[in-house]
Design a protein that fits this description.
The chain is an alpha+beta fold. It has two domains: 131 residues, 3-Layer(aba) Sandwich (Aminopeptidase), CATH 3.40.630.30; 159 residues, Gcn5-related N-acetyltransferase (GNAT) (Aminopeptidase), CATH 3.40.630.30. The chain is built from nine helices and 13 strands. Strands 1, 2, 3, 4, 5, 6, 7, 8, 9, 10, 11, 12 and 13 form a 13-stranded mixed β-sheet that branches. Helix 6 runs antiparallel to helix 7. The longest helix is centred in the first third of the chain and has 16 residues. The protein is globular and about 70 Å long. Bound molecules: coenzyme A. The site of coenzyme A has 17 residues, from strand 4, helix 4 and helix 5.
Length: 329
């Protein structure tokens, strides 16, 4: 079968970006849209609106003038450096239409991306887990692709999960726990004045992608954090959340598949400064976000990318989707 593989950049010399992204979303949605629906906004946000998206290392496969497959890739290009990301390349999404599979198109797309990553000095390659990711690995629903990647030198490392809670009509709010050290803490919603203190907190405690998320998204979702302050008004913990009011371009990963749900709420990430841990701060932040979402009409709530099932089960969460981390070195 004759097919041609060209970069997004090349394709856009004669086509419009919006047209390209709509074609890719439709191609994907035809097969997987009922599980993982990708709207134009989501495709745009996770590609062209994300720093580090490589237009020149993302490809479309064309057969008879039709796009039948594609791959998108990213590297870390933020000013905020993360040591472990320096040698990392991410394959964000790879897809070939079922009618065109087993003809070597997927392999060719992968080879192109990998060769370019090599030139860029990227030695650790992941499927998913990119900044503004679709997936934190390969989803179990697409499990048959695991063997395909394994044959091409990728190792399956371990699993991670998205958890879900189905909110009942008369769902009870969850009680906060007393802080173990007996001191006073204030947990409250963030507002536009909290940007600097939250940035400073992230720099101290989580100087990687969570810091970048605040930097990139705070303007769009400034009231989408619960913050915990100690008696001296020192910020010691945060919990990000969102719901159907959160802007499409300001969502965290937990809301990625919101189009499947009536009114999805999402929680995560959550973090507490090291010296403040084991004091029920994380639990109370989590419960504050959960109660907020219940009170504001979320019909389902997702906590993304976690292995803390035992903790979250206690407040009504169960596994929704599981993913396998896949890496090639
Ligand atoms: C994974 C995926 C991209 C592979 O695409 P593909 O075009 O079928 O890939 P290939 O044709 O290169 O390889 C498929 C098989 O066909 C074989 N093949 C390639 N050319 C062939 C030919 N001309 N005749 C017969 N078989 C052929 C390959 O050897 C391969 O078999 P192997 O894995 O046993 O080696 C595709 O299955 C897909 O879109 N899956 C769903 C999306 C997904 O899971 N993405 C990952 C997470 S984002």
């Amino acid at each position: 079968m004759n097919f041609q593989i060209i970069t997004f950049k090349e394709f856009l010399k004669t086509n419009k970006k919006k047209e390209l992204l709509n074609i890719l979303s439709n191609l994907w949605n035809e097969e997987y849209g009922f599980i993982f629906p990708i709207s134009y906004d989501l495709m745009n946000r996770n590609t062209y609106q994300t720093k580090g998206f490589l237009e020149e290392n993302s490809y479309v496969a064309i057969c008879d003038e039709m796009i039948v497959g594609f791959v998108t890739s990213k590297i870390w290009t933020h000013e905020i450096e993360v040591e472990s990301y320096k040698s990392t390349g991410w394959i964000s999404l790879i897809y070939v239409h079922p009618k065109f599979r087993k003809k070597g198109i997927g392999s060719e797309l992968l080879i192109k991306v990998e060769s370019n990553f090599k030139i860029l000095g990227k030695k650790e390659l992941y499927v998913g887990r990119d900044y503004q990711n679709f997936f934190p690995g390969i989803p179990m629903d697409l499990k048959s692709s695991l063997g395909w990647f394994a044959k091409r030198g990728y190792s399956c490392l371990y699993e991670t999960n998205d958890l879900i809670k189905y909110v009942k009509n008369n769902e009870q709010l969850v009680a906060l726990r007393p802080f173990k050290d007996g001191k006073k803490y204030e947990i409250r919603l963030s507002n536009q004045n909290d940007f600097d203190v939250l940035i400073e907190f992230m720099r101290r405690n989580y100087p990687g992608r969570w810091l970048v998320e605040v930097n990139d998204c705070f303007d769009l979702c400034k009231s989408n954090y619960f913050l915990c302050f100690d008696e001296n008004n020192h910020l010691c913990g945060f919990c990000r959340f969102g719901n159907n009011e959160t802007d499409n371009y300001g969502i965290g990963y937990s809301l990625t598949w919101r189009n499947r749900f009536e009114s999805l709420g999402g929680i995560g990430p959550i973090g507490v400064e090291a010296s403040y841990r084991k004091n029920n701060i994380a639990y109370n932040l989590l419960v504050s976000a959960l109660n907020y979402l219940i009170e504001h009409g979320s019909t389902e709530i997702i906590i993304d990318w976690t292995n803390l099932m035992d903790l979250y089960r206690k407040i009504g969460f169960e596994i929704w989707k599981s993913y396998t981390y896949v890496r090639k070195e």
